Amino acid sequence: MKLTQLSAYALTIGIEALIAARLGPRFQAKRSRAAMAAAGGSLLTHPIVWWGAYQLYPRLGVATIPLLELFAILAEAVGYRLIAVKRWRGALLLSGLANGVSWAIGAVLTSL
Description:
The chain starts with a helix and ends with a helix. The model has no long low-confidence stretch (mean pLDDT about 95). The chain has one domain. With about 110 residues, it is an all-alpha fold. It has four helices and no strands. The longest helix is centred in the middle third of the chain and has 30 residues, at about 30-60.
């Protein structure tokens, strides 16, 4: 299944907001604030990751996606920390979990 940028964008925002809302309380965050941080972070980072993959893959090869996902995790963790989570460790973990699930679902869908 080929995902367009728009469908991947919507899927990413939805998945990450859902994961953050579900797991937010484990990191002492209100569900609504965690979902808002996830959606806001994805709104900003997804276009960079999407277009960055096209630009960087010819130079970096298979390292491109892990590096771009690391960028997204770190950038979105700032939003989690400012909006929803009291500690940096929790913000990084929540960001990593939300991004990891989102990436995995996207990878499965594109392999179909």
